[in-house]
Design a protein that fits this description.
Chain lengths: 378, 510
């Protein structure tokens, strides 16, 4: 990250200030290189298996960014990933291991569907849309806060409670989708469809470029500014890196972490809300894996909101491009996309571990007490 | 018996050891002297198989050996007592020694092991209760266990890495005859220290390291203390002492002057209940710190220092008594940030965990307490221009050696890291300062710097509470000294009381 922000715009110049973050791993070129390497590996694997790699690449590019429809589809697919990625990213940066974006996403979607189909019907659409989005967002945030409260008052680690609360959320949502929110005429857990009046406006007709996409990307920029320019961003960074020092510097660690957790949950909830209002227009009991994918996106984006936007776009492109490859005569299974994603993440982790390990080894200049090191420099 | 020939070891651009040649004789007590960072620890780690030399060779009894791991070192008869003890606290003394003596799946039988232990403890005239859990032993006793452990598993060479760092003066004196007995039994003892007096009392021969090079090897009595210190340090460093200040009337201690300043911090009958029933980590502690004085708290680690500090910081609620800042009773301070009226500067013992955020820049670390206050922030936005300006001032004022203010603190040397902490905590002229072992892990130059800064703050009227386990440094700069023993605080008549008296109080025998 530090090397990427050497340009001279004031925002970027200050980025280096306290975001020489996490480790030397935070390098954009490295990330991009990793993605390329992963693609290369998978493609060469496919070539060995008898698929023509160049044809795959050209169809994939064509299907993800070749033209307005593929491009907007990629963006629409990136939107929920970006929001769950932001959810994971801001939480991790603040030292809160929120693995629960999935549950928060589901609850946000469910509340939004409920409000816009059954519980909140006005004659004019905008207030319904706005209220439904806000309610979905806060539902995600409050669901996340539940984990913080459990940690604060019952010492339950957030990692565990958020994972488990994902399952609770899943079954709560299913129960409601088979109860008060069930669409008529089917026994399956499925909500009624949202009336088209309440759908998010689409900017370009007949594409999936809905209002939620710019909202998500603007939010990423806002979070970037929050991280880099505000005292709150500084506090959460310090808490994430060294909670003990933060506490003794007078930062109210628990309070800030509650806030970070709430914001994180809100992001995931918003992702769910925008997804139902902008793309699916109804929901079923199994509603995607955007929450878990968001963690991968956040890691790939090195916890930086702009990096997360890039990573979400990459994953979105992988998904939509793969559809074209799948439909084509090449008959490549869709699972290949997941292989690429998994290889990207594994390579990232591997490289991080390698670099981190090397860094630690060089750091151990003198395996003696920390104060001993290199005091001849003094 | 053991020879190191032309050993070099580099870590990146730094030569930790540069062509070190060292030969140890059987039955000798050989001292290794050197400042922090001189290469002592690296040398020991190479001998114990924790690090491997880039060049050079090691010969044991005339045969070339490769010490690839601590296990290998032990098989070769090398035992080491680390500065930080390596024991399982919940196990008994015997079990700990048994663990160390085990070789793979095989471990010596209980009777055989007890025999080996007894053989050594008889020689040393020590009395170890083998069935006691290590957790119940005091630090001095634990060290004895460590030494016996190393003797039982080693057999030829005993390496002691800064063994006296955790001991009281009396305990140090008590350690000398047993070590002589070990040497008399035909073992070689390698004694690493930067405390000159002990080395002079104990060792036959010494090697002095400076910046990875051997600057002297020979009999101890060929050099006097001044010469040794000169060789260790190179240039003479000014070490602050109260005597220096007594020469200047301005800095003389004020305790006899009659005009006592009002206390900035007062503890009245503070007691803290322990986790075990009936345990009182602090009992009826009365303490005051006045402006313009350094009140030193001496004591062996683990006699209630932690509780005292956390109580002052407001992290622990006293079961009884009051903590009073300035004039207002206040036992509910939650954070050591800036409380209105009484800004508290706190130099913690563990700067890595409590004071610094290593991946962040020097600038961010310097601003860690002020970042949200005017003029460094406005409406929740950071004003980096002001940050830069202020940190440049502090870097200059406190002589922090760093390439620039954006350098991550983690890449600085220990001394410079501590300077960052000191600059942040003292730079804003707090009226009350709490310093805990502020020179731990620093070399002589950096220690002198930190202590001079405390003295400077004292001159400017700050009230300083110094909790320090290095008695000499504590006595050097304190106006008043109290001793914390077993949770009870007792004020001494320092400077009328002698160092030995205070040492005895630290052990609870006076």
């Amino acid at each position: 990250m530090m090397t990427t922000f050497h340009s001279s715009s004031p925002l970027r110049r200050h980025a280096g200030r306290f975001s020489r973050l996490i480790s030397a791993v935070a390098l954009l070129p490295l990330t991009i290189g990793t993605c390329g390497l992963a693609l290369g590996l998978v493609l060469s694997g496919l070539a060995l298996a008898g698929y023509p790699p160049l044809a795959i690449v050209s169809r994939w590019v064509d299907g993800s960014i070749g033209g307005i429809y593929p491009l907007t589809n990629s963006l629409a697919d990136a939107c929920p990933l970006l929001l769950t990625g932001l959810a994971a990213g801001i939480a991790f940066r603040g030292g809160v291991l929120n693995i629960g974006a999935q549950g928060q996403f589901l609850l946000g979607a469910m509340v939004t569907v409920g409000l816009s189909t059954r519980w909140l019907i006005f004659h004019s659409a905008p207030p319904v849309i706005i209220l439904a989005i806000l309610a979905g967002t806060f539902a995600g945030g409050l669901w996340a806060l539940l984990a913080s409260v459990l940690e604060r008052y019952r010492s339950v680690p957030i990692v565990l409670s958020t994972i488990l609360l994902n399952f609770v959320a899943l079954y709560v949502v299913r129960a409601i989708l088979q109860g008060p929110l069930q669409a008529g005429g089917t026994p399956a857990p499925q909500s009624p469809q949202i009336a088209p009046a309440y759908w998010l406006p689409v900017f370009i007709p007949f594409t999936s470029f809905h209002l939620g996409i710019p909202i998500a990307f603007v939010l990423a920029v806002l979070f970037y500014a929050l991280n880099q320019r505000t005292t709150f961003g500084f506090e959460s960074l310090v808490i994430g890196l060294n909670p003990g020092a933060a506490r003794l510097a007078g930062i109210r660690v628990t309070r800030k972490q509650f806030l970070v957790m709430f914001m994180s949950g809100c992001c995931a909830g918003l992702g769910g809300a925008l997804q139902v209002l902008g793309v699916t227009h109804f929901m079923t009991g199994s509603f995607g894996n955007y929450g878990y994918a968001g963690i991968a996106v956040a890691l790939l984006g090195r916890l930086n909101p702009l990096g997360i936007a890039g990573a979400a776009l990459f994953f979105g492109m992988l998904d939509t491009g793969a559809l074209r490859v799948e439909e084509s005569s090449l008959a490549l299974p869709h699972a290949v996309v997941n292989v690429v994603k998994a290889v990207v993440i594994l390579l990232m982790l591997l490289l991080s571990a390698y670099l981190l390990g090397r860094k630690l080894r060089t750091r151990q200049v003198d395996p003696s007490p920390p104060g001993d090191r290199g005091s001849d420099k003094l | 018996m053991l020879q190191l020939i032309n050993i070099s070891k580099r870590f990146g651009p730094v030569a930790a050891l540069d062509n070190v040649t060292l030969s140890l004789r059987r039955g000798a007590i050989h001292g290794i002297l050197g400042e922090n960072g001189a290469g002592k620890s690296t040398l020991m780690n190479i001998l114990f198989g924790l690090a491997h030399p880039d060049t050079g060779k090691i010969e044991l009894d005339g045969r070339r050996v490769r010490i690839v791991s601590p296990v290998r070192a032990q098989r070769l008869g090398i035992g080491m007592v680390h500065q930080h003890f390596k024991m399982v606290e919940s196990l008994t003394v015997l079990e700990n020694i048994s663990l160390a003596a085990a070789r793979g799946l095989w471990s010596p039988g209980r009777r055989e092991l007890i025999g080996r232990i007894r053989a050594w403890t008889d020689k040393l005239h020590w009395n170890l209760d083998l069935e006691k859990p290590v957790a119940d032993l005091a630090v001095g006793r634990r060290q004895r266990v460590e030494i016996v452990k190393a003797l039982c598993t080693g057999g030829k060479l005993l390496i002691l890495d800064e063994p006296t760092a955790v001991l009281t003066p009396q305990e140090v004196a008590e350690l000398i005859p047993p070590l002589r007995a070990v040497a008399a039994a035909g073992m070689t003892v390698l004694f690493i220290s930067h405390k000159l007096a002990e080395v002079q009392k104990l060792c036959d021969r010494i090697t002095i390291l400076r910046k990875g090079r051997v600057v002297y090897t020979g009999a101890i009595n060929e050099l006097d203390a001044g010469q040794i210190a000169e060789k260790m340090i190179g240039a003479r460093l000014k070490f602050p002492r109260l005597t220096d200040h007594q020469e200047q009337p301005d800095n003389a201690p004020r305790r006899d002057s009659g005009e006592l300043a009002p206390p900035r911090l007062e503890l009245r009958n503070v007691s803290i209940r322990g986790s075990r029933h009936g345990a009182w980590p602090l009992l009826n502690v009365n303490l005051s710190v006045r402006s313009g004085e350094i009140h030193g708290i001496a004591g062996v680690d683990g006699n209630g220092q932690d509780f005292l500090i956390r109580c002052i910081l407001g992290q622990l609620e006293p079961a009884d008594g009051n903590v009073i800042f300035g004039d207002s009773p206040d036992s509910h301070r939650k954070t050591p940030g800036t409380r209105s009226g009484t800004p508290l500067g706190y130099i913690p013992e563990d700067r890595l965990r409590e004071a610094l955020v290593l991946p962040l820049s020097v600038q961010a670390n310097l601003m860690l307490k002020r970042y949200h206050t005017s003029p460094f922030a406005w409406m929740g936005l950071c004003r980096f221009g002001r940050w830069r300006q202020r940190s440049a001032e502090l870097i200059g004022q406190f002589d922090i050696r760093c390439p620039d203010a954006q350098t991550p603190v983690g890449t600085l040397s220990g001394g410079n890291q501590q300077k960052v902490v000191v600059a942040r905590e003292l730079g804003e002229k707090p009226r009350l300062i709490l310093a805990v072992n502020p020179t731990r892990g620093l070399d002589v130059g950096a220690s002198a710097f930190v202590m001079n800064q405390l003295l400077a703050a004292r001159r400017e009227g700050a009230a300083i509470l110094l909790v320090h386990s290095d008695l000499d440094e504590l006595l050097a700069i304190s106006d008043r000294v109290s001793v914390l023993y077993n949770g009870q605080l007792q004020e001494t008549s320092w400077p009328d009381a002698s160092r030995e008296q205070i040492g005895k109080m630290m052990l609870g025998i006076a």
